[in-house]
């Protein structure tokens, strides 16, 4: 059994806020807990905020990284469940960005008693189109293969190519630069493993197993998770509520923090309007 202190150090867990209701934020691929800094101040007075870095990301303990454990999303699910256990969390409000939306849903399937509500920011259960199911994920398999091939051959070039596509919002070049720098600061082996676990994942069949209510925040003009994905999730998730945001791109918690704060607050306080 891993000691509590080791888990908190391993995942660089930070806890703050004046409230008692746990609000757990999980960052997306190539990012770290710093990406939440624009929206967490909006919740500090009312919630107990928990942020962390997945093993291999940010300021986590790289010595704890294992390619075997993190070869698929279950390794990241285990990170979340171990953090929850270490902090004795319950009735959690979970906020996940991008792939962490699916990681959070998978965690809620394993331990439904821990989670009260889920907020899924730019989620996708499968990034690859599937004509047999009329599913639009946004990419052909060859697109993903080419992307990962570029990543393996020229990691810096890959980061420079992908960051503006993900962030969009060209009027905020500093955000694009920050995302690119975050990609580049991640160990290339870790990033490649996480990318494969992310872009080759298919969690469509898992959606029907979820029993925790979810808010789906779908951005306008998101190159990673198209609008069709949002409607798909709304169709198959238990008590899934879809909100189409005015925000563009794939990182509204950075590019459109106030809209993101308002929508999350309304949902968590049961003041949400369709």
TrEMBL record:
InterPro entries, per the entry: AB_hydrolase_1, AB_hydrolase_fold
One Pfam family this sequence matches: Abhydrolase_6
Highest taxon in the source lineage: Bacteria
Domain AB hydrolase-1 per the UniProt entry, residue ranges: 23-261
PANTHER family membership: ESTERASE-RELATED
Family: Belongs to the AB hydrolase superfamily.
Official protein name in the record: Sigma factor SigB regulation protein RsbQ
Species, as recorded: Planktothrix paucivesiculata PCC 9631
Gene: rsbQ
